[in-house]
Design a protein that fits this description.
Strands 1-2 form a two-stranded antiparallel sheet. The longest helix is centred in the first third of the chain and has 32 residues. The protein has about 290 residues and is mainly alpha-helical. It is built from 16 helices and 2 strands.
Length: about 290
């Protein structure tokens, strides 16, 4: 069926509008990151998209170097929050994907534990604050407060339902005949899972891992409640970038936001050949 030129025009116009709405905040953040303090404190007609006097002072400032434009002093640099976010997010993603994949495969292939999906989903049904209050008490008793491994553990628990539901959908769409043929040839269930099923699920695993990583990487509430100083993450540290003299340090926040966008983008680029296939896995079945 041939689409009319008017329909195609409206379709491309809608795509361009959606793209503009998506890119405008990112472009503004990138512009703000290179502006000196007089420019990102400007208002009204003085606001500009392109920095008049580009500078790297905002990046130097968050990493502890002296700046002629930013006269305030930081009590800590952005290095520790970046390391904390990387450690907690990566380990939390590994925990969620390992447990979620194993549970999803077992339920998809064996069908036992029919109440497990609902039980895992209940982790996301309660208000976050109602869940975090007992978690704070438990973590304080165990000595996990303000530690990257304690943060990673709760990240893995919180994002486990997402990993489970995503992987269960992928396993349900995968033909069982391939596994059954391998078992007829003498392969054990474990060998079938590790040598046949998991290699075939590379694309779904990559897309699910990226989704879980982004959830962990962008978390604010959990890190705010479970960290105090030593292992605060990027979102918590970013919220503290303010001064009684200059107010909110928008240039420093934009610089840190630009840095924080790098790991998800790099991860997305590395797995881009699996991403589209993973997101559409099982959509087209013979």
């Amino acid at each position: 069926m041939t689409r009319s030129p008017i329909f195609e025009t409206f379709r491309y116009a809608a795509i361009l509008i959606a793209l503009a709405i998506t890119l405008v905040p990112i472009l503004w953040m990138a512009s703000m990151a290179f502006k000196p303090i007089p420019e990102w404190q400007a208002t009204g007609q003085n606001l500009t998209w392109i920095p008049k006097d580009p500078t790297l002072d905002n990046f130097r400032f968050i990493f502890g170097e002296s700046s002629s434009n930013l006269i305030v002093a930081l009590d800590r640099t952005a290095v520790q929050p970046i390391v904390a976010s990387l450690l907690a997010s990566v380990l939390g993603t590994l925990i969620a994907m390992t447990a979620g994949t194993a549970a999803a495969y077992g339920l998809s292939r064996y069908g036992s534990g029919q109440n497990l999906p609902l039980a895992l989903l209940q982790l996301r049904l309660f208000p976050p604050m109602a869940v975090m209050i007992p978690v704070m008490i438990m973590w304080a008793f165990l000595g996990f407060m303000d530690t990257w491994w304690g943060l990673a553990l709760i990240y893995g628990i919180v994002t486990l339902p997402f990993a489970f539901w995503l992987m269960k959908t992928f396993f349900d769409d995968m033909p069982r005949e391939i596994e059954e043929a391998a078992m007829v040839e003498g392969c054990s269930r474990w060998r079938v899972f590790t040598r046949i099923t998991l290699p075939m699920m590379r694309a779904p695993l990559a897309s699910a891992a990226l989704f879980v990583f982004i959830l962990n990487w962008s978390d604010y509430l959990i890190a705010l409640l479970l960290t105090t100083r030593e292992w605060v993450t990027i979102p918590v540290y970013m919220a503290s970038l303010s001064s009684s003299m200059t107010g909110q340090l928008y240039g420093a926040k934009a610089a840190l936001g630009l840095i924080a966008a790098v790991p998800p983008v790099i991860l997305g680029i590395l797995i881009q050949r699996h991403l589209v296939r993973g997101l559409t896995f099982g959509a087209l079945k013979q």
